[in-house]
């Protein structure tokens, strides 16, 4: 790990690894569905679905918790007979459900400097909280050498903790999640940015809230009491607040932060929401949360601090703002 941080100035390393500091900003991606995932059905069979396929054409994932003990035993026998990769089969939850496993999905593109620190912090806080976890890095062939860094991290922490699943090119955030889900062994999926925009110290809080309230989704929020944003200029804050206010006014989703991307999902819930969503950029995250609200999923919130990224350039553009407004109107009118 020290080798990966060797080229960083010592003052930067010290401040980045300080438990009392946070460094944040979200990454913008395009959303283009091209991948398939396998969903396990109650009878033990599997079906492939395309993430953009309408739910009217597929069977949605079932609720495992609603099964009787006899149905659950029958399902487990079916699982052991098939070697197909499925969202549920690949998880490692204990029989009593007390010790679930958590999968962190990290899409990356040009995050060579940020990725080692992000992984170090995830390991630090998950180990301290004694949660079973893995991190899946989905790199879209970054030209800056991010994939080489990810390989070193995989060797450093072990392939049971850090799993590199690269893709040939930049295909978008939604397909990155779909790609990562195929390899996830966790019962719950944590989505976060790799650019240090989301501090891993909030992950245990999200997990504990989910366990206490049995939520389907726990989302980090910048806009509830205790949350906040730092490192943005006045214009950026105004745009963010305005966009969130407009979304709240039109959609009334019941959550305070629609465009945030730091969230914890039940695996089957995330699979269904991705399958249903068609938006790009900021609107992709907003659409998933809006649909979750309409489907009556139970959603909790954890206040987070959000500070502009430490390394790299911000990716917000005028086109992203235009796309956001178009996407918001689409959700308001058609969903």
The side-by-side strand order for the widest beta sheet comes to 5-4-3-6-9-7-10
CATH superfamily: Spore Coat Polysaccharide Biosynthesis Protein SpsA, Chain A
CATH class: Alpha Beta
Strand count: 11
Q: Whole-number average pLDDT?
A: 78
Q: Rounded to an integer, what's the Rg over CA atoms?
A: 19 Å
Number of helices: 11
Helix content class: 25-40%
Tell me what the CATH architecture is. Answer: Alpha-Beta Complex
How many separate structural domains?
1
Described by strand count, sense and barrel closure, the largest sheet is: 7 strands, mixed
CATH topology: Spore Coat Polysaccharide Biosynthesis Protein SpsA, Chain A
Shape designation: globular
- Uncertain runs with pLDDT below 50, 5 residues or more? 5-37, 48-66, 78-89
Name the structural class.
alpha/beta
Distance between the termini: 46 Å
Write down the secondary-structure element order.
HHEEHEHEHEHEHEEHEHHEEH
Q: In percent terms, what proportion of residues is strand?
A: 15-25%
Catalytic activity: a di-trans,poly-cis-dolichyl phosphate + GDP-alpha-D-mannose = a di-trans,poly-cis-dolichyl beta-D-mannosyl phosphate + GDP
Family: Belongs to the glycosyltransferase 2 family.
EC number: 2.4.1.83
Function: Transfers mannose from GDP-mannose to dolichol monophosphate to form dolichol phosphate mannose (Dol-P-Man) which is the mannosyl donor in pathways leading to N-glycosylation, glycosyl phosphatidylinositol membrane anchoring, and O-mannosylation of proteins.
């Amino acid at each position: 790990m020290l080798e990966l941080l060797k080229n960083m100035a010592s003052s930067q390393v010290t401040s980045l690894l300080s438990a009392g500091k946070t460094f944040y900003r979200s990454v913008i991606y395009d959303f283009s569905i091209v991948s398939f995932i396998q969903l396990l059905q109650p009878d033990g069979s599997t079906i492939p679905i395309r993430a953009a396929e309408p739910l009217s054409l597929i069977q949605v994932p079932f609720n495992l918790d609603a099964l009787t003990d006899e149905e659950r035993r029958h399902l487990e026998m079916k699982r052991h007979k098939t070697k197909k990769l499925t969202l549920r089969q690949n998880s490692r939850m204990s029989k009593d459900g007390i010790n679930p496993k958590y999968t962190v999905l990290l899409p990356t593109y040009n995050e060579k400097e940020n990725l080692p620190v992000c992984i170090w912090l995830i390991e630090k806080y998950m180990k301290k909280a004694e949660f079973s976890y893995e991190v899946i890095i989905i790199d879209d062939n970054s030209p800056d050498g991010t994939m080489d860094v990810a390989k070193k991290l995989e060797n450093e922490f072990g392939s049971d903790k850090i799993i590199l699943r690269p893709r040939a090119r930049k295909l978008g955030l939604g397909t990155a999640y779909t790609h990562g889900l195929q390899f996830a062994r966790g019962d719950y999926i944590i989505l976060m940015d790799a650019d240090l925009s989301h501090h891993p110290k909030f992950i245990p809080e999200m997990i504990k809230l989910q366990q206490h309230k049995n939520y389907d989704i726990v989302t980090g929020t910048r806009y509830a009491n205790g949350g906040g944003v730092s490192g943005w200029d006045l214009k950026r804050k105004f745009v963010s607040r305005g966009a969130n206010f407009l979304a709240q006014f039109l959609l009334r989703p019941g959550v305070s932060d629609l465009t945030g991307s730091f969230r914890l999902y039940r695996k089957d819930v995330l699979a269904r929401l991705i399958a249903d969503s068609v938006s790009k950029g900021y609107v992709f995250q907003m659409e998933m949360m809006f649909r979750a609200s309409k489907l009556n999923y139970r959603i909790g919130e954890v206040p987070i601090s959000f500070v502009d990224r430490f390394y790299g350039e911000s990716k917000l553009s005028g086109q992203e703002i235009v796309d956001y407004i178009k996407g918001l109107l689409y959700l308001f009118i058609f969903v």
